[in-house]
Write a structure and sequence with these properties.
The complex is a heterodimer of chains A (778) and B (165).
Chain A (H helix, E strand, L loop, with lengths): L20 H6 L14 E7 L5 E7 L1 H5 L3 E6 L23 E2 L5 E7 L2 H10 L1 E6 L6 H5 L14 E9 L2 H6 L3 E9 L11 E7 L4 E6 L4 H11 L7 E4 L15 H13 L2 E5 L2 H7 L5 E10 L5 E11 L7 H10 L10 E8 L15 H18 L3 H6 L7 E2 L5 E2 L4 H11 L2 H4 L7 E11 L14 E7 L5 E5 L8 H13 L6 E5 L16 H28 L6 E4 L2 E4 L6 E2 L1 H9 L5 E7 L21 E12 L6 E11 L6 H20 L5 E2 L2 E2 L18 E6 L21 H13 L5 E2 L3 H24 L1
Parallel strand pairs in A: 1-12, 8-31, 10-11, 14-15, 20-21, 27-30
Antiparallel strand pairs in A: 1-5, 2-4, 2-6, 3-5, 7-15, 8-13, 9-10, 9-12, 13-14, 16-17, 18-26, 19-20, 19-25, 22-23, 23-24, 26-27, 28-29
Helix pairs in contact in A: 10-18, 14-15, 15-16, 17-18
Chain B lengths: L9 E8 L2 E8 L4 H8 L18 E4 L2 E4 L12 E3 L12 H8 L9 H14 L5 H7 L11 H16 L1
Parallel strand pairs in B: 1-5
Antiparallel strand pairs in B: 1-2, 3-4, 3-5
Helix pairs in contact in B: 2-5
The chains are: A alpha+beta (778), B alpha+beta (165).
Chain lengths: 778, 165
């Protein structure tokens, strides 16, 4: 299982561009909406106008009778629930009897053109009986509240109560105990490509082909088979280019199943393109979260215990909710050495679009609160923020109290790097008024060690193929969603084989051709698929070396590669070109396909406690960052002047892509910290456009200086770990800590918008005036 | 939503598209983005929002960067429209395309065509822009992957090449 680190450093250490980059910069890359749809019908969805209600009557006959309408489907056409966790599938693609959020699909049509489809939608007759609706966790949990799901008392989807170590003693022996309640707004992935799906049903062969924006084609495949009652062998899922995911497309989404239902009903091809507003309604992002965290600390900064309560407003259906609330507790650990932890988590149903997985799944908001509290306690004790982190470091290899394994741990070096690069000690406390520095740390899994669907198969499979032309084709089910995973596969295969990068072609995510993959989630691809790719390439290399040895009449051990040539010794006596060796390898057997696999061993798959699998991974990435801010006390605007971010990714397989992922994740953390927030008015999204959902533009995005730390994980591919998620979670606390450093105010709400800053500044001025008035009076 | 209705009145539209004149019948209400994607099949022009929010559909009209999703096709009579598909010459990437590719100014690639076209308009009118001029020129184009750092680097690199010539 252990992969050898790359010994041959032929690729430039700055990294290589994406193998599909030219397609993207020339506009040739085809995204779902760009696929040939000349003969496709246009799909449209009727959505619920109320937040919570019973469907009294749904009349579709007028819509069906409209000329140009080829299919109308409703909840009656699909009596099967779908979802991601086998234990929590409580959602229908279209509502049956009851709707639970405004915008929930109720019916759909496929028609010759968009205008006809929209007219048909307006002809559908809908009568609803309203039920009480709840838009906050507190309202939904209040005694007597109507239940969204009859089997979930108190509107609690899942409660988690975990205790590790003697936390009572930890609090009793501490020098300082401090508690904070912090609220983090709901945010959205807001990937730039709106959702889209193209489904093609052939009634003669009874086959369905679906091209969609999914990050996990395998889940889509499973759910289509379930919801359409089809034999999975008659379904093909093909991934076109995908315009970003960030977790939005990990779960199967209602419109994907609806498009397939329409295609089958119309016996043809249907293109469904969701508007930006509908893309926001489909949601599945990071929930609004209230966190109460209590930490106990010794005078020297050593943490002695931690208790944490997390309440997540999860929206109307289960989705990934159970996993999210488990992650929020599990990843309290794995970053620092904490001797005792008590965690209480509540995932709450509310009448809003369902939440799901988003970059840094479950870990971001709790990490934010933890890192803010660490800083405040450091201040209370007169300690430096770096010193407090250093007082609590882990020592790899180790196992945390909740049975997470830590095999490599580059956090100390991450701390050193950003401390030095930001000239922290020269500058902290010496900056002009309104300017400040803050820091924080974070971590994230390199793939969930236990797959959601336990089938006994390897956790990743990659096939590598060699044919007469000498071309090497890597076949992977892993979905490249822009993160560069196909490029990673090409590099690992070419490096292992010792061939030029452009000899390797990658075909990804077509269920008819590529081996099943568990998908692009939990930053699993580099670690798992990378290891499987290396395994396959090693097997192919052994075949090539044997063929070269036969041809050169030498022992395989004596064969060496110089460039792409196979030689004995230095190559002066005898040398074969790659083409000659490939031809020799094909004698008698023809085209070669080898299969490489990777599986996380059982002892890496988490503890035995309930929910113990969540958070378990073969390797954590580690991050530290310093943020420099300016706060304008006239407008409340916080400007991020500079970010120094260090990430331990084990080994940078493609340093250029690693840098890009770190910058992107840090920046996404900045959006959540400064301006991003979904807001609802009576369940109606008030943020459902890219103008109202306020993301930072290029004009307000800071320089992000990246420091790559390589701890060489013993199990990672060439020592690599994840790089796409770990750095996000340290931005929001580093920012809030920097603001506290700049203006002396601690913010307990995210995002820190100008109005929140102004409100805090005004309140402080008012209190100061009041204090001086009182002083004058006495 | 984006396609024009059958009842819309048609008209003849003559324009230059990526250097070639062409004539098509379009509806008066047809948006330029739909004309480019559905009629001319130039799907490098992307739709990322419900109108004028994201810049993914940016094209050049007589050299000026314009969001094609809030422009009527009929308003382009006699004008020169350039899309991402027109930038590479005989398979050779333009300076901006090469820089976006090599510097990783593109990740998922969905905003990339619009971003490159906006940058192209900038470099034509200002071959040596400052960092803040680049940021101002691209502030109508949203990217969700890169944090913009490598986009700025890509435009600076392309401008450097231009400057060297």
């Amino acid at each position: 299982m252990t992969a050898d680190p790359a010994t041959d450093d032929r690729l430039p250490r700055r990294g290589v561009p994406l193998i599909d980059g030219v397609e993207k910069v020339t506009g040739r890359a085809r995204y779902t909406a760009d696929l040939d749809h000349a003969d496709a019908l246009v799909g449209r969805i009727l959505r619920s106008p109320v937040s919570h209600g019973e469907i009294v009557r749904l009349g579709v006959s007028k819509a069906r009778a409209l000329e140009g309408v080829f299919a109308v489907v409703t909840g009656d056409d699909c009596p099967y629930t779908y979802g991601v966790l086998p234990v929590a599938m409580n959602e229908y693609p279209m509502a049956r009897e009851r709707v639970r959020y405004r915008g929930e699909p109720i019916a759909a049509v496929a028609a010759v053109d968009a205008e006809t489809a929209e007219r048909a939608i307006h002809l559908i007759e809908l009568e609803m009986r309203r039920l009480p609706a709840y838009y906050t966790s507190a309202e939904a949990r209040a005694p007597g509240a109507t239940l969204l799901h009859d089997d979930k008392p108190g509107n609690i989807e899942r409660e988690v109560h975990h205790e590790f170590g003697n936390w009572q003693q930890g609090f009793a022996t501490a020098d300082l105990v401090r508690e904070e309640k912090i609220s983090c707004a709901e945010v959205n992935h807001a990937q730039i490509e709106p959702h889209a799906c193209l489904a093609d049903y052939d009634p003669t062969t009874e086959r369905l082909t679906v091209q969609s924006v999914s990050q996990v084609g395998y889940y889509l495949h499973l759910m289509l088979a379930r919801c359409l009652e089809m034999d999975a062998s008659r379904i093909r899922i093909v991934k076109p280019s995908i315009g970003g995911g960030f977790g939005a497309r990990v779960e199967v989404l209602n419109f994907e199943i609806i498009t397939a239902l329409l295609a089958r009903s119309a016996a043809g091809k249907v293109l469904m393109r969701l508007s930006r507003e509908e893309t926001f309604l489909t949601h599945r992002a990071r929930p609004q979260t209230d966190i109460t965290l209590r930490l106990a600390m010794r005078r020297d900064g050593r943490i002695t215990a931690c208790t944490c309560e997390v309440v997540q407003r999860g929206g109307a259906y289960a989705g990934y909710g159970i996993v999210t609330i488990l992650y929020a507790g599990a990843l309290l650990q794995g970053l620092y050495d904490i001797p005792a932890v008590k965690y209480d988590g509540y995932r709450v149903y509310a009448n809003l679009p369902p939440c799901g997985a988003m970059r840094g799944h479950g870990s971001v908001d709790t990490r934010h609160v933890f890192e803010c509290l660490l800083d405040r306690m450091a201040r209370d004790l007169g300690l430096d923020p770096f010193a407090v982190r250093r007082a609590n470091l882990l020592h790899a290899p180790t196992r945390t109290m909740n049975d997470l394994i830590v095999n490599s741990y580059g956090l100390p070096e991450c701390l050193d790097r950003v401390e030095c690069a930001s000239r922290w000690h020269d500058r902290i406390g010496k900056l002009p008024d309104g300017k400040g520095l803050g820091m924080a740390c974070s971590h994230y899994v390199s793939g969930a060690a236990k797959p959601i669907h336990w089938t006994g198969e390897p956790h990743a499979v990659v096939n590598v193929r060699l044919d007469f032309d000498g071309g090497i084709t890597a076949l992977t089910g892993a979905a490249d969603i822009g993160q560069g995973s196909s490029t990673m596969v090409a590099i690992t295969v070419s490096e292992t084989l010792g061939v030029a990068l452009n000899r390797v072609r990658v075909i990804a995510a077509d269920s008819a051709v590529t081996p099943k993959d568990n998908g692009a989630y939990s930053s699993r691809i580099t670690f798992m698929v990378g290891n499987a790719a290396i395994d396959a390439a090693k097997k192919l290399k052994a075949i090539l070396v044997d063929a070269a040895a036969r041809k050169l009449e030498a022992r395989p051990d004596d064969i060496k590669m110089v460039g792409e040539n196979f030689c004995i010794g230095s190559g002066e006596q005898a040398s074969l070109s790659f083409a000659e060796v490939a031809s020799a390898a094909l004698v008698d057997r023809g085209a070669i396909t080898v299969s490489g696999t990777f599986t996380c061993p059982p002892d890496a798959q988490g503890g035995r406690h309930k929910g113990g699998a969540v958070g378990s991974t073969m390797g954590f990435s580690y991050a530290a960052q310093v943020v420099e801010v300016s706060v304008d006390d006239a407008t409340g605007t916080v400007t991020v002047d500079k970010v120094w971010a260090a990430l331990d990714c084990g080994h940078a397989i493609n340093p250029l892509a690693v840098e890009g992922q770190i910058q992107g994740s840090v920046w996404m953390g900045m959006g959540q910290a400064l301006c991003e927030e979904t807001r609802y008015i009576d369940g109606l999204p008030a943020h459902a456009s890219l103008l109202e959902y306020r993301m930072p533009t290029i004009a307000e995005s800071p320089p992000i200086e990246v420091h790559i730390v390589e701890s060489h994980d013993p199990y990672g591919p060439f020592g690599a770990k994840e790089t796409s998620e770990g750095a996000l979670a340290s931005f929001p606390p580093a920012l809030v800590n920097a603001i506290a450093n700049a203006i002396g105010i601690d913010f307990n709400e995210l995002p820190v918008t100008p109005d929140r800053v102004m409100e805090a500044l005004i309140q402080r001025r008012r209190q100061a005036r009041l204090a001086s008035a009182l002083k004058a009076a006495t | 939503m984006h396609a024009s209705g059958p009842q819309s009145k048609g008209r003849l539209l003559k324009l230059k598209l990526n250097g070639r004149w062409r004539e098509d019948v379009v509806a008066e209400s047809e948006l330029l983005v739909d004309y480019l994607r559905e009629v001319a099949r130039l799907t490098g022009v992307k739709i990322g929002c419900d109108g004028g929010e994201c810049g993914a559909c940016t094209v050049l009209i007589d050299g000026e960067a314009v969001p094609s999703c809030i422009t009527l096709a009929a308003r382009c009579e006699g004008r020169h429209i350039e899309t991402i598909e027109g930038l590479a010459t005989q398979g050779r990437l333009s300076r901006l395309q090469r820089a976006f590719h090599e510097k990783l100014g593109t990740q998922c690639g969905f905003c990339t065509p619009g971003m490159i076209m906006a940058a192209e308009a900038l470099l034509r009118r200002n071959p040596t822009p400052t960092n803040s001029e680049i940021r101002a020129a691209l502030s109508g184009n949203l990217c969700r992957c890169t944090g913009y750092v490598k986009i700025v680097e890509a435009v600076e690199a392309a401008a450097g090449q231009l400057h060297d010539r």
